[in-house]
Structures are given as structure tokens and as C-alpha cells.
């Protein structure tokens, strides 16, 4: 059985209808709401407090949602989280929902570590190769990690493709150690 955040995320996605831009707007508004709750202690405490009733909290969510232009799906999610005393899960739920949505859309989320900053043409070529390799749209986040030495490390979900010089040196060292004992 999945954890509560994943179940809420799936329920949120089931309520998202329309073009991809609708989901993109929903996730953007969700991030805005998470930031608002982090910045406004009184609002967060009100929603978390057992001293206030469900109807009062939902009424406040409706007012905030109307002023900020939040989608009904986002407000329904917040209402369910508040009703179940889980508003603290909002950021996690939204993150999971966005990842699930990207997966459903065939978008591969990749984390790419390189030894040095790439030139624009190198990054463009690498994005094209990654899209070909994964057979779908590849959204890559690039980070510079001097420990890579040369080459790159690509992480997709829990799988790591390590084509770095650092890894080749480690493999060679391990092979030499194994041969040394014979």
C-alpha cells in the first residue's frame, strides 16, 4: 500500500483535467501556497490547530484561494489535508503529484552531474542524446561536480548511469586489487 502523500498526489492528479498548461499552473500555484504557508505563521497555525473547526478552515481556504486565483483541485486537496490534520504534507504531496504527472506525460526527469560547466551547444547536444536514449522528453537538471573529473553521471529515479572518469578509475583500481590477491 502506498503512503498517504502518494495517495493524495494520485487523487489530485485524477482531478486535473485539460491541457498540460492546466497542470503546470496548478503546480505553480501549489508552490506559491506552500511558500505562503511558510511565510504566514498565523495562517499555518490556524490550519493546523484543532481549536478551529473544519468549516472555518475551509472558509478561510476559499477566501485565500479566491484572492490568489487557486484552482478548485488545489483547494479541494488542501481541504482534505486540513480535514485529516495533514496540511503539513502539502509540499510533499505536490512534489509527488508533479513527478507522477511528468511520468504520465512521458517526461524523464534526469539529474546530470558534469565536471565543468557545459557550453550551450554541448548542453543542447547532450539533451538531444538523453532524449534519444530515454525515448521521451528529457528534462535534465545540470550540476557541476568537479569530483566527476570527466564524463558525466546521469540519475533517473533510483537508477544511476555513471560514465565518469572517476568511476572508470574506481573500477580499474578494484580490478587491480582483485588481481593482486591471486
Total strands: the figure is 4
Query: Which runs of at least 5 residues are low in confidence (pLDDT < 50)?
Result: none
Helix content: 55-70%
Tell me, rounded to a whole number, the average pLDDT. 91
Count structural domains.
Answer: 2
Compute the separation of the termini in Å: 49 Å
Percent in strands: 15-25%
Given the structure, what is the number of helices?
Answer: 8
Helix and strand content put the structural class at alpha+beta
In N-to-C order, the SSE pattern is HHHHHHEHEEEH
The biggest beta sheet is recorded as: 4 strands, mixed
Q: What form results from the Cα inertia axes? A: elongated
Cα-based radius of gyration, to the nearest Å? 22 Å
* Strand order across the largest sheet: 2-1-3-4
What does this structure look like?
- The protein is of the alpha+beta class.
- The protein folds into two domains: 4-103; 107-180, no CATH class.
- It has eight helices and four strands, in the order ααααααβαβββα.
- It has helices spanning 4-14, 20-39, 41-48, 54-68, 72-83, 90-104, 120-134, 165-180; strands spanning 107-114, 137-144, 151-156, 159-164.
- A four-stranded mixed sheet has the order 2-1-3-4, with helices on both faces.
- β1, α7 and β2 form a beta-alpha-beta unit.
- The N and C termini lie far apart (49 Å).
- The model has no long low-confidence stretch (mean pLDDT 91).
